[in-house]
Design brief:
Blueprint lengths: L1 H17 L27 E5 L2 E5 L2 H8 L10 E5 L2 E5 L4 E7 L2 E7 L5 E10 L2 E2 H13 L3 E14 L2 E10 L6 E8 L6 E2 L2 E8 L10 H20 L28 H10 L11 E5 L4 E5 L3 E6 L3 E8 L2 E17 H13 L6 E10 L3 E9 L3 E9 L6 E14 L3 H13 L4
Antiparallel strand pairs: 1-2, 3-4, 5-6, 6-7, 7-13, 8-12, 9-10, 10-11, 11-13, 14-15, 16-17, 17-18, 18-22, 19-20, 20-21, 21-22
Helix pairs in contact: 1-6, 5-7
Length: about 425
């Protein structure tokens, strides 16, 4: 029963870091038709009763938004990154994110490690603001959200870019949730043009006391202002790197055998051929419990949890590899079960596969290694599992999990690249 519990726990963690759509390969987001709600009168503030009078006071966040949220320049704020955007968060706040194709799903967490806001950076087709908001709110909150908004405010940012700010009513919360959308607008500000859309859904449920409101407002203004500044800035010209190519033979035979990542890894491990010096054109990434090298044409995105941490590696507009490093504690589970869950969570978007080869390796001092090689319609796929287990086909103790893909015409190049990346891991 304990093993089944941990297996289910691992599945939940995989699903979380994939944000249910963490599939490797390009993801296309299509507009989702939504029901048209009956128009309601929009309030301009918060209504308060004083005797027999009814006064409307302007929401402090709305007032500051109208004045223009600014990039914070305060001690302790740190710079974080999501895709090509750099933004700031308050002291001891953290950001975790997952990249699926060109889209980024993330969370901003406060100093206590509790979620403070959802963050989405998506490449979308055209939407209406209401249609887009309804689709995302339905996905995030289902029937927890009401159809009421405290207000709606648009701000022109220049070059056709727009900031949209509102507050969403929640059935189970006394405080409405602030929402900020950033996008390129059509002829009207409520028309979201195709392209990059940034969405911030703040959830300040831990900050309801009166004495917390000033700090809360400063955090939301600073984070929002930082994103407005990043979104409004002219895009930097990025040179698209080219992955390394293995030199082809002068007269290759049609039946030439492609590189086998499983054999490459087993040979390297058995010979203790670890990569200990940084190759030319590569960079180093350091996490809490491990470090590794990766080629400079890849873009790493860090993620973590109590049970493991790791990186997504993007190339161009797709995620091509994922690395997990963690520890199972006192529990264990079967390698084939882990393989099945990794496929379902991260490779099933490529369709069905043919399992070409399984390459196992066991060493009493080192542990257990197994590499699965898969053929998809357009890609080669690999899942590698390493564990310090004392038994074959068992994942126990410290582990490394790897998921990677390659186009068929670049298998040699990517297999060698993945071999170098994995053999550089130190933990």
């Amino acid at each position: 029963m304990k093993r089944l519990f941990w297996m289910g726990f691992l599945v939940v963690l995989f699903a979380f870091f994939g944000f249910s759509e963490g599939l490797l390969g390009l993801r296309t987001v299509e507009p989702t038709p939504t029901a048209v709600s009956t128009p309601t009168e929009q309030a301009t503030g918060t209504e308060q009763a004083v005797g027999v009078l009814s006064l409307r006071t302007i929401d402090p966040l709305l007032s500051s938004f109208r004045d223009g949220w600014k990039v914070p320049n305060l001690p302790g704020w740190s710079t974080q990154k999501a895709g090509d955007f750099s933004f700031k968060v308050p002291a001891n706040f953290s950001v975790s994110s997952s990249k699926s194709g060109a889209n980024i799903d993330g969370e901003l967490k406060d100093a206590q490690g509790k979620r403070f806001a959802w963050l989405f950076v998506y490449q979308l087709e055209s939407y209406g603001v209401e249609e887009l908001l309804d689709a995302v709110v339905a996905s995030l909150y289902a029937d927890r959200a009401t159809s009421e908004k405290d207000f709606e405010e648009f701000q022109e940012l220049g070059d056709g870019k727009v900031a949209y700010f509102t507050r969403l009513g929640m059935k189970d919360q006394k405080m409405s949730f602030p929402v900020l959308l950033l996008y390129s607008a059509g002829e009207k500000p409520e028309e979201v043009e195709s392209g990059t859309v940034v969405m911030l859904f703040f959830e300040p449920v831990e900050y309801l006391r009166e004495d917390q409101q000033q700090a809360l407002q400063g955090w939301i203004e600073g984070i929002g202002g930082s994103w407005i500044g990043a979104f409004s800035a002219p895009p930097e010209e990025v040179k698209q790197p080219t992955p390394p190519k293995v030199q082809e033979p002068v007269a290759p035979k049609p039946s030439r055998k492609q590189a086998d990542l499983g054999s490459l890894l087993v040979d390297a491990v058995s010979m203790d051929d670890w990569v200990t010096s940084l190759p030319r054109g590569w960079e180093e990434e350091v996490a809490y419990t491990f470090q590794m090298y990766y080629p400079e044409y890849m873009v790493p995105e860090y993620f973590y949890d109590d049970a493991f941490e790791g990186f997504d590696f993007g190339y161009g507009e797709i995620t091509v590899a994922k690395v997990f490093v963690g520890d199972t504690g006192d529990e264990w589970f079967l390698a084939d079960d882990v393989f099945d869950e990794l496929y379902e969570s991260y490779l099933s978007g490529l369709g069905s596969y043919d399992l070409v080869k399984e390459t196992p390796y066991f060493d009493e001092d080192m542990g257990f290694l197994k590499v699965y090689e898969m053929d998809f319609d357009e890609y080669k796929g690999w899942i590698a599992i390493f564990s310090e287990s004392e038994y074959t086909d068992e994942v126990a103790g410290e582990f490394i999990l790897f998921v990677g893909i390659s186009p068929y015409d670049e298998v040699d190049s990517w297999a060698q690249t993945y071999r170098t990346m994995l053999m550089s891991i130190q933990f």
